[in-house]
Amino acid sequence: MWKYLSKSLLGASVAASVAFSFNANAEPLAKDLFGSKNLPAAIEPASHGFYSKGCFSGGLAMAKDGPHWQAMRLSRNRRWGHPELIKVLTRLSEDANRDGWNGLLVGDLSQPRGGPMLTGHASHQIGLDADIWLTPMPNRRFTDAERENVSAISMLKNGTLYVDDRKWTKAHEALLRNAASYGNVERLLVHPGIKKKLCDTVTGDRSWLRKVRPYWGHHYHVHIRIGCPADSPNCKPQSPPPRGTGCDQSLAWWFTDEPWKPAPKDKPQKPRARDVMTMAALPNACRIVLGAPAPASEAAVTVDRPGIIPANAARATAVERFDPSEVLRRLSSGEVPIPSPRP
Ligand SMILES: [Zn+2]
Predict the structure, then answer these.
(1) 223 CA distance to ligand 1 centroid (A)?
(2) Lowest-confidence region among 103-107, 242-246, 272-276, 285-289
């Protein structure tokens, strides 16, 4: 990969020395490198870095169709996650179905090897984030075209910050309660109006509300974030949510003008992180993740029913070409391949 890049740049410099000198300092952007990978890194599962600055290996895909889920926006190829995340989602699909939710409509997880994306999300980079629609799966299978075009339904009353009671159901509450009940789920991001609805209506055990965090957007979908898996010493955890249910002044703030004020026009806009992020900004291990071989096929690393997690699928498919213990040795010694210097 790096060899190829430096060779092609050499070619470019000979062919167009003026253009090349202009671009001499341009490192390739991490979003372009990760955005061009169609399959995961077939090495041991591990998340590297932080939710908004990292990558991951050993990824598995949510199948297009499971017994109680359908994946949406297939063309984006963002159905990939760390095996722990895939376990959570398949389990949630079962629990949700039992509690009156027909099944999950699965939105974006991560790119096959994570990393910054060409469009959308700032986070979702280390295989531990997933967007689940707040619209239940219908009783039939969507066509591929529908999966691109069908819109999720906002839970809000038009033009307000409050949930529309004609749309909100006990099954919505059960979906969120089930997700929050799993030990490794650390945060559920929802619109402040949804958090308020839960604060106003949940009875009995309310401790799980601590995990439900108000955030901009998220009135069509809930963002599920799990904690750093045990296999990922390189993963940087997020600090835990403040104690208590969060049904307090911190929630009241969202119903003031302040969070919704437009940014002052005269202030220069900072470029988005993904538009400047090069490999140098990511953990060193992400170079290995980027350069690692792919599994033999997408099917070998796709999960199509709960309980059947091909935990060693990635390793099994690549073992002939790649020795994971070698990778781990290099990671622990801090010795990682460095791209060859530019000509
Ligand atoms: Zn999200």
Answers:
(1) 5
(2) 272-276
How far away, in angstroms, is 214 Cα from ligand 1 center? 13
Decide: residue 217, CB within 10 A, 0-12 exposed, 13-18 middle, 19+ buried: exposed
CA 108 to ligand 1 centroid distance, Å: 7
Q: What pLDDT does residue 36 have?
A: 96
How many Å lie between the centroid of ligand 1 and the Cα of residue 26? 30
Encode pLDDT of 308-330 as tens digits. Answer: 665 445 444 433 333 334 433 44
**SS3 category, 288:** helix
Phi-psi region of 203 (alpha: psi -120 to 50; beta: other; left: phi over 0): beta
* CA 310 to ligand 1 centroid distance, Å: 25
Are 190 and 222 in contact by the 8 Å Cβ rule? The answer is: yes
Give SS3 for 161. coil
289 Cα to the center of ligand 1, angstroms: 22
Nearest CA-CA partner of 221 in 318, 320, 300, 120:
120
Residue ranges of domains in the chain: 29-235+273-332
CATH class of segment(s) 29-235+273-332: alpha beta
pLDDT (tens digit, 9 = 90+) per residue, 141-197?
A: 999 999 999 999 999 999 999 999 999 999 999 999 999 999 999 999 999 999 999
pLDDT at 343: 34
For residue 32, give the amino acid letter: D
Q: Which residues surround ligand 1, an ion (CB under 5 A)?
A: 131, 223
Is residue 53 within 8 A of residue 273, CB to CB? The reply is yes
Residue appearing with tokens 């000509």? 343
User: Is 280:29 a contact under the CB 8 Å cutoff?
Assistant: no
* Model confidence, pTM: 0.83
